[in-house]
User: Fold this.
Amino acid sequence: MDKEHTNPIKRVVYISENGTPFVEGNITLSHQHMEATRFNLFTGNQTLEQREKSYKVSETAVAHCGFYSENGGFKISDEDKNFLQTCKVAVSTCAFGGGDDLYQPIGMSEASLRKVCYVAFWDEITLAAQEAEGHRIGENRYIGKWRIVVVRNLPFRDQRLNGKIPKMLSHRLFPSARYSIWVDSKSQFRRDPLGVLEALLWRSNSMLAISEHGARSSVYDEAKAVVKKNKATPEEVEMQLSQYRHDGLPEDKRFNGKKALAEASVIAREHTPVTDLFMCLWFNEVVRFTSRDQLSFPYVLWRLKVLKNINMFPVCTRKDLVNSMGHLRKAKPLTT
Assistant:
């Protein structure tokens, strides 16, 4: 658990408008320019030049990483913020747009119940949908083992993009956490979190563990499947692939001996400057291009070559960690 990783990135500085309480190291940079894209006051407007610079490895990395402006949305109450700041190990999930029910975790030890925060991020649509079905948040803010954090003023119309915030930016939401585990809302987590960290991270001295894709290995093959299944338009997928080809992304099915394509419904990671930067860069890619994070993961893995301690675990391991329930209903998009 206490093994040290040697990496050239010592600190990550998050680009912001005027500074926010989430800035690591209390350093901010100012960039005011905005355009009519999916970039907004939550993300900041990352230029292609800034995107390129964010992949340059140095002791102090500089990157957009959400929470750009106080007016950018994703508002959490002060009481919930204070709670999130106490978490040292976090298991999190989210359901925005009323899409999924909340599945109670099982299989945890008494030690994990004392040491681990279980946090489910909901929006007001999910809150109303769950209350209509009789699932009400207790006075202590819990439903079962889950601490419910209601997020207001979500920054994107696309609920899939809103879901990437707790999925990828756990280091921004849990600023004191050393470890986190992400579980998609369609799944029931059924293992002890400390045991999962032991199995997926500590034994192999890994910083990041993520479930590999069961069906495909190539980002280019995945792109065809995304279009075929109408998960994104052919035009936006081609725009993303054109940029990746221009940047030189190879068609190799493996990077550094590891399968390149991730399914990513379960992510365990140590919060280090390297993994924090990786998640920031991954989030920026899903904002700039399609919200299908399977397409951007291999690219970020390829570009950020300093992230070597990664455990791409197989489908059978993922199935051992969670019971997959599937999405119950379609999430409602935000309306203006």
